[in-house]
């Protein structure tokens, strides 16, 4: 688990280990959160449970809430989303039973847990907590721009949903593998569950966006790295405000541009052409230098999941030569990814 | 009063005319809101009232709530802020009496009106509304970047609190004086009270910031102008997220840069040098062109309130020649301001 986040720590530190809840899901893509936790927080997941009809599995042991509690679990995490992002009626008995077994409930769904009367009542009766990770902590201060100690890396993107969280997690793991002192700083609901804490930056009131990013990566030892999960894109006409507040408040020393070469337009906004990687580098340096004049680009992370190995390797090499920067796909790893890590730490 | 704002209109249309409430204020600078309303919404202010100890006046008639109601008033606006921005204990009886006389209460203070138990109780008893203009309307959509009909002007700034609201109001009035169809679109609490509606952009959740700006200036007739009050600055390390979301969502055809030549550093953040006017023009065009490729700078509004008339005139002329753009102080008006209006409409 990460170090506490200043005085807001208590509000955003999740009870761990987790029991992963899969609901009645039959479609693996709806269980992305559970798979992400099984991949990136396996040491803090004791097992999984579903209700009647569930056919997906993370591969973790199937446990009842009581068995999970006995194995150390302290919360049940809703690891699935149905269409609409609501609490299924057929989930309520399982969630209530988990509270009776001593587990808090953690959710990243849009609907608030306490808005389901049966869950609110069970929480009162059992004394358990209902934790919505989409809800920011209270009392976030406005930003100050004050330079903080320690080092910071931020992942940025040509758009939303193309690998900024995954890239940050992979870089964080690589930094730890090299013996560095580093924290992954989460800014979205899945990242927050993986990290065990963080701030859902898209849910913060605009006036406090940069301030939230400032408290997310507090002063640290000179050799310490915060690897910060990016959000949105400076070029996304819906979400650029989130990206700029996060950039200013994070004051990164290094950023990595995340891009999906198969994407040509902004997700869901087809009139908006995707920016080039060079445009993202240029604008990120220009805007980021307001709070860290030494900001630099460490390299590029390409999501080559739609390509075969040979095609991907050729593209990574060609893009690296074209841009004069390390270009890697963290999922493929290899020498290219090692070069990206080297460049970030240089 | 402005045209309704899409389907959110009901949430943000204030009951008018107003009775201005001055509390027990003795310091005119704490009554800025009342003075702003008396200046810019005089036709919708029937009078003023204070409580024991009040020594400031807007020059409007002193009326009791019953007299104000008889004169047409439908709300009492709290036109003052004490230190801390709270409801004075010695205000409560007057505010309760206003509700009994048939007036809703409108406030731009940080504290929520309904958090004062006596006011909440009186509102329930009398059926009157407690309206906090710092609270955004519910159900704001995310942005789409879709091009809207009609024309838009946005005021931007080298920093906060140097004349963006005043400049937008003066340009709006000048547009009306020239017979144009135009609305002032308010983005902060005083502006919202003046306009009788609007959205407090700094209080909107970041993910919805651009979307809020989009619904604030909806589709309009081709010759119609929305004159939009700017917020913050793209160069302010605390508030740039607000400014960028407002810029993207407003998709302005024209912007006017507001600047105070006596200010050298960001207000309250002395380590941050104020950007130059040219830097603001350049960055606003670069970022604004994402949602309106035809964006252009109409000119500059200088706040010369700290200068004598001769010194101010010389500076306006020199800056205009240096920048190759109209430069005016809207408070001084004159030929320079007329040239700025011409340029915006060109």
From TrEMBL, chains A, B:
Residues 52-136 form the D-glutamate N-acetyltransferase-like N-terminal domain. Residues 142-334 form the D-glutamate N-acetyltransferase-like C-terminal domain. Transmembrane segments: none annotated. It comes from Sphingopyxis indica. It holds the Pfam family DUF1611. Gene3D superfamilies: NAD(P)-binding Rossmann-like Domain, P-loop containing nucleotide triphosphate hydrolases. This is Uncharacterized conserved protein, NAD-dependent epimerase/dehydratase family.
